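note to self: dont lose this again. the chain is below, predicted strucutre after it. 240 aa total, dont forget to put it in the shared folder this time
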Amino acid sequence: MNPATEPAVEFKTYEDLAQRLEYAVLRPEFTDEEVADGIQRGQSAGVACVTVRPSDLDFAVRMLAGSPILPASTAGYPEGGQTTGVKLYEARDLIRRGAKEIETVPNLGKLLSRQFQHVETELLQMGRSCLEAGVLLKVIVDHERLTEDLKVIAMKICKRCEVTFVSLAAADLPLGKRILKDVCRMKVSSGVATVDEALAACAAGADRLHVADPIALLAEWRARLEAQQAAGNGEPPPTN
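---
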């Protein structure tokens, strides 16, 4: 990814970058206290959404009530091997409990077996449920066994299924931009740890970024903004 070859993306305030970030509190061993701490970290940073395990969604909805930060959760996670009925029930239950965003995974086994109709039927039904409820559906198309042609097919399915975000590896953003053509927005699924990486991903077309430590990244961003303000040149911070 070379930001010099992409259109400039202007980021001039703390919120410009913070509201592109997502924070996940999904590790299976997290205690209630650790989940609460994770949600608080997301609140402190001012990210776009905090994603929690389905069993923690009620708690997250209560903690984030009155906040602009959206409660999010997962259905069919992490490898999409559940039956379609189970995924649909999971998604509808999360919607009922107050999720504003749901992240799912296409059935990787079916995708690798080239059973594309199965994958599309499943995502179409989930997409309709989310659309009717005003909930954003995010689909992860990032797995080491997916070849480029399978990623392209999966993205084309997402376009037809009213998916809001397609979650990709940073290296796949140029491919996603070519295939999705502004029908679906793009999210970077991992690998963003610094301000330069975040700005480069946004310049390449990402609207959301999953980050492991939003507080550290945004502290770096705030320091850069303060340095730019102190310099008094009125220009946005450099990206490299």
